[in-house]
Amino acid sequence: MTYVIHTRDELAGVTKRAVTRAVVMTMGALHEGHRQLMREARRRGDEVIVTIFVNPLQFGPNEDFDKYPRTLEADIEACRAEGVDVVFAPARDEVYPGGPPSITMNAGPLGEILEGASRPGHFAGMLTVVHKLLMLTRPDLAFFGEKDFQQLALIRRMAVDLELGVEIVGVPTVREPDGLAMSSRNRYLSPDERQAALALSRALREGATHTEAEAALTAARKILADEPGVRVDYLALTGADLGAPAAGPARLLVAARVGATRLIDNVPLTLEKAA
Ligand SMILES: Nc1ncnc2c1ncn2[C@@H]1O[C@H](COP(=O)(O)OP(=O)(O)OP(=O)(O)O)[C@@H](O)[C@H]1O
Ligand SMILES: CC(C)(CO)[C@@H](O)C(=O)[O-]
Ligand code: BAL
């Protein structure tokens, strides 16, 4: 029997596998946010793979690659507790056997704004390793957190633009009871800095109570300005696709330094009126 097919839906029908494989990519130092991704992956996948790899390619020369927390034993325990089937924790040479790759991803215009403006090359390095890890693990589903909202948008874009044949699933941000977005980098904060860092989620929460763009930004800006321990890198209001804000679903995003630690956060909001 020879099938001749003409549409991508038909192609998906003939290439569909019996088992649904789900992947969660991480840099380790796992917390409840990562565990939520694993639970979603477990719920939708027959097989769950967690990757743990601190990717040198996405760190700038003055960033925290060397001091990034590495807690492999505890991470494996967390994966076990979530019923993960496979933990893939490769060494650098395993991912980049020939040294740094000469062919890499270009993150396009969306990779140049916000995080991309502050961290040149970050998204190209991130997309390159995500693409490699997708090729190595060959999943049907891949789970990423909304905490890294621009990253999630870029990975979705790459999957569509390059026909990667993987469904990218976004998972809402998991927060500490006091509102702080969970992040491996929260470990760097002193008790005073952690207190100051609460201004980020407080500002976003307050901003999101407004339905007019300028009012949302002004409210968030004021809360950030009132916290001397926080140095804002950017506060931005965008459409839900990170484009210009219009009436409807939008996103309020912040990046700031608290001491030496750079944190990001974002929340959804709905605008009645654009800026
Ligand atoms: N609080 C969170 N809620 C939901 N998903 C999260 C949260 N924090 C991280 N993730 C997601 O977990 C995946 C792995 O992220 P990563 O290992 O970089 O953790 P991280 O806490 O974001 O670390 P970092 O502090 O270095 O930014 C990403 O898809 C990221 O968006
Ligand atoms: C997606 C990722 C694992 C790629 O290194 C990283 O950027 C992260 O942990 O968010
Ligand atoms: N959590 C996003 C990866 C990074 O900051 O390098």
Automatic annotation (TrEMBL):
Name the InterPro entries for this protein. Answer: Cyt_trans-like, Pantoate_ligase, Pantoate_ligase_C, Rossmann-like_a/b/a_fold
Provide the residue positions that the database annotates as binding ATP.
Answer: 27-34, 145-148, 174, 182-185
Record-listed (R)-pantoate binding positions: 58, 151
Main location per the UniProt record: cytoplasm
Q: Which NCBIfam families match?
A: cyt_tran_rel (TIGR00125), panC (TIGR00018)
Q: What this chain does, per the record?
A: Catalyzes the condensation of pantoate with beta-alanine in an ATP-dependent reaction via a pantoyl-adenylate intermediate.
What's the protein name?
A: Pantothenate synthetase
